């Protein structure tokens, strides 16, 4: 992975985190774009993806009952 792509991905992630706190910046699309740029095989992104999967599965279990 090139340094430019990695820098762009982490910049998008940082902007997305700011966007969750500030009403002017859209946070969720920037977070998704950051993960897409970094890719799912990046070692720093894998724990986040696993956490999102656990969160999604827990929501599925809650809505089924």
Number of E-state strands: 0
Question: First CA to last CA: what distance?
Answer: 43 Å
Structural class: mainly alpha
> Helix coverage percent of residues?
over 70%
What is the total number of structural domains? 1
The radius of gyration over CA amounts to: 14 Å
In N-to-C order, the SSE pattern is: HHH
Low-pLDDT segments: none
Give the key terms.
3 helices, 65 residues, single chain, mainly alpha
Protein described:
Helix content is 77%, strand content 0%. By secondary structure, it is mainly alpha-helical. It has one domain (3-64). The longest helix has 19 residues, at 3-21. It is flat.
Write a short abstract of this structure.
This protein is an all-alpha fold.
Q: What is this structure's SSE topology?
A:
Elements: H1 3-21, H2 27-38, H3 46-64
């Amino acid at each position: 992975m090139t340094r430019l792509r990695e820098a762009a991905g982490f910049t998008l992630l940082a902007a997305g985190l700011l966007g969750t706190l500030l009403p002017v910046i859209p946070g969720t699309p920037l977070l998704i774009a950051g993960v897409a740029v970094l890719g799912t095989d990046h070692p720093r992104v894998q724990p986040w993806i696993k956490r999102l999967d656990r969160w999604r599965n827990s929501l599925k279990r809650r809505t089924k009952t």
